[in-house]
Design brief:
With 494 residues, this protein is mainly alpha-helical. It has 19 helices and nine strands. The chain is elongated, with a radius of gyration of 26 Å.
């Protein structure tokens, strides 16, 4: 399948991720096109037959909601809205996330409750399919009234404004439209508001984070297992009976995964001199399992949001209603992104503790995992680096969602700060990818000191593949390069 067709049906998160990862071309079904056109026609008819004030259609925005706008100025109103709200700053949003924003925006608008032109939706799809990525900035959204500033930058090129990246080059909005022979979109009533109101900036980050978190969780099973054997740990804490009586699904999953992973390990099977392992090994099911439960919960919320209409006002042609409400408020996403950041930070935290134990010179391992400690510092400072990243994650985990600020002259008096939660979570995920690589580097080194005993088949396979890129540390060398390679190795498919 090279194409995906958007219907009005509920889309599962796994389906969305498959569209993204498979680089499928996306189009609108006839029913989605009909829903968009029906809503637009209804709104046009309603505006012709009534002088009533409807927020954002023939009024100003925010605290200017009671300011009437002449029918002759409705197009200018929407264009001015997009231009005036493009106030983003800071670092640019990565293209992989801009891509998600485009597709998520199309999903929301295609439901037929936003009043946009079909041409507007199809232009966004054209950008997505052709790999034309608007330049969007990370800072500027309060996470309520929609992701106004980021979405304004996303939509500027529709008007021939702003900037885009295309095939490694930067173009102005006017240049990219000329390159493809496109006329700028002339926004009709409400369209600018429909484009800017919405949670697609937050949703893009949230969907990416959930996907990456799930991948990290799965990879950490193998890395934690390698660390367990490198430290000559016990398998008892992973028994089915002890974990089942806790009744926590993630814990049970993690324990089962570890049992399956370690089944063929010679190291785990040998008699142990110690009665217990430190918490960082013994409590892997409890800590990693709790993170798994958090990921699953967050995935459900993101999936619901992906299927939602989050602009304002919302249009209901069948019941003849245009309702001004608050579906743009990012609280559901803000809360779960703060939650996921905490859960992933804890995965990184317990990982660093295993690294610390591996370099401690206990359980028959040399100090700092090097054969001649003293002359060699070995992996002393790579643990420092790991600890620094873990502490940064802790600092990034201060919840954004407990904050709010008054805006728009008090009209918008409670906001989610979900956009800040999103960018913080993104950094936590990136940090965890580095931590995973550092633990893998230490676990592989420790495992080499257990020879001739072997770990399980899957762990030995991972170790062999890793050793093709990062050799055994026999004496001190430049480790920053090793850590970079280890991180990149962790990003590959295992």
């Amino acid at each position: 399948m090279s194409q995906y067709t958007i219907h009005l049906d509920y889309i599962e998160l796994t389906e969305f991720e498959n569209i993204i990862s498979s680089n499928l071309k996306v189009n609108l079904s006839s029913e989605a096109k009909a829903a968009v056109e029906k809503c637009r026609a209804y709104l046009d008819q309603k505006m012709q037959g009534s002088n009533a004030l409807i927020y954002g259609i023939n009024t100003g925005f925010g605290s200017l909601c009671d300011t009437a706008i002449s029918s002759n100025d409705l197009e200018a109103l929407q264009r001015n809205l997009v231009l005036s709200h493009a106030c983003g700053t800071g670092e640019e949003v990565p293209q992989e996330l801009v891509r998600r924003m485009l597709l998520l925006k199309v999903f929301g608008l295609s439901k037929g409750n936003s009043g946009v032109q079909l041409a507007t939706v199809e232009r966004l799809l054209f950008f997505y399919n052709e790999g034309i990525y608007p330049v969007v900035y990370q800072q500027g959204s309060l996470g309520a009234s929609g992701d106004l500033a980021p979405l304004a930058h996303l939509c500027l090129p529709l008007l021939g404004e702003g900037e885009v990246d295309y095939q490694g080059n930067r173009y102005s909005g006017a240049e990219i439209n000329a390159k493809f022979g496109l006329a700028p979109i002339v926004l009709q009533s409400k369209e600018g508001l429909a484009l800017l109101n919405g949670t697609q900036f937050m949703s893009a980050y949230a969907s990416y984070a959930v996907n990456q978190a799930q991948t990290l969780w799965e990879k950490w099973i193998l890395v934690a297992g390698m660390s367990l054997d490198a430290y000559d740990g016990r398998l008892n804490p992973f028994q089915s009976n002890v974990n089942s009586i806790r009744n926590q699904h993630g814990q049970i999953q993690m324990a089962e995964a570890m049992r399956n992973l370690m089944e063929t390990s010679e190291i785990i099977a040998q008699e142990k001199k110690h009665v217990q392992d430190p918490y960082s090994f013994r409590c892997i099911p409890q800590v990693h399992g709790a993170t798994k439960d958090t990921i699953d919960h967050c995935a459900r919320i993101v999936e619901r949001e992906m299927n939602a209409v989050t602009d304002n006002p919302t249009v209901f042609p069948d019941t003849d209603e245009v309702v001004s409400a608050g579906n743009f408020h990012g609280q559901p996403l803000a809360l779960i992104m703060d939650f996921l950041a905490i859960a992933m930070a804890e995965m990184g935290s317990i990982s660093e503790r295993r690294v610390y134990k591996l370099i401690s010179g206990t359980r028959g391992l040399p100090a700092f995992l090097v054969a001649n400690p003293g002359l060699n510092s070995g992996m002393m400072i790579s643990q420092y680096t790991c600890a620094s990243i873990v502490s940064q994650n802790k600092q990034l985990c201060t919840p954004a969602s407990v904050d709010t600020i008054d805006s728009s002259n008090g009209q918008e008096d409670h906001v989610s700060m979900g956009a800040n939660a999103a960018t913080k979570l993104y950094r936590v995920i990136q940090n965890c990818q580095t931590i995973l690589g550092i633990e893998l580097m230490h676990a592989a080194q420790g495992l080499d000191f257990r020879r001739p005993l072997k770990s399980s088949e899957r762990i030995e396979q991972l170790h062999a593949e890793f050793r093709k890129e990062v050799p055994f540390l026999s004496e001190d060398r430049y480790l920053s390069r090793d850590m970079k390679i280890a991180r990149n190795f962790g990003l590959k498919n295992w």
